[in-house]
Predict the structure.
Amino acid sequence: MAQTNPQQNNQDSTGQMGEDSAIRIARINRSGQIWQALLGAFGGIVIAALPIYLVGHDQGSKEGAAKEAAKGPATVTATATTTVSATVAVTGSENPSPDAGGDSNGATSLFDLAPLRDQTDYETTEAKVNTRQYDRVLLGGVHCQGQSVTYQLDRKFKKFTATVGLTDDSLRIPVRFDVYVDGKRAGAGTTVNVGQIKPVEIAVSGAFRMQLWVEDAKDEYCPAFEESQLWAAWIKPTLRP
């Protein structure tokens, strides 16, 4: 049987171990070279790309600035709001009465015209007629001779309108309301008693003067002038052009 030489085996083992170490060292060196090559390549790419990026960024900034400059200066639009206060002066009454009679169509209230002469028993005053309170009526006391008031129209108007009645504190006696145009009675007259009101409409075209007349319809009531208890009211007396 062949015998194994121990010295030879030791030499073979030592040679094998040296060979393995050399292989491992070679592998480590090659891995380091690979990483070094990769890092060098990446660094080269970054270094090469950086100038391109910087040039592109600078060019983009310049192009943006050029576009903004081409647009011209910014336009600012300002809107100014001005509040204007106007004061309108109105002649006449500040709070016209709803019973005045005039309106915006050129009508004239008889309250705005002065009678042709003083009428001692006619007045513009408040009164209650047919249970309604009026701020202004043309009021005349009825007595033996009747009662009248005259106005000069100067041929400026075409129609006279009013509502007539007796005050609620008057005696229960019928009264007739008449309108005279230049001395002639216009229409048949209007008769009312306490608790009644009636409309009056008279044509006055070309009239120079107009007279309003009230009297006892039965010609039976004849008190003294200053003792009348029969009050005739012309409500909203109005002249229209």
Observations:
- Confidence is low (pLDDT under 50) at residues 1-18, 74-96.
- Strands lie at 108-109, 122-129, 132-141, 147-152, 159-166, 175-181, 184-192, 197-203, 209-216, 231-240.
- The two ends are 164 Å apart (CA to CA).
- Residues 141 and 231 are 5 Å apart (CA to CA).
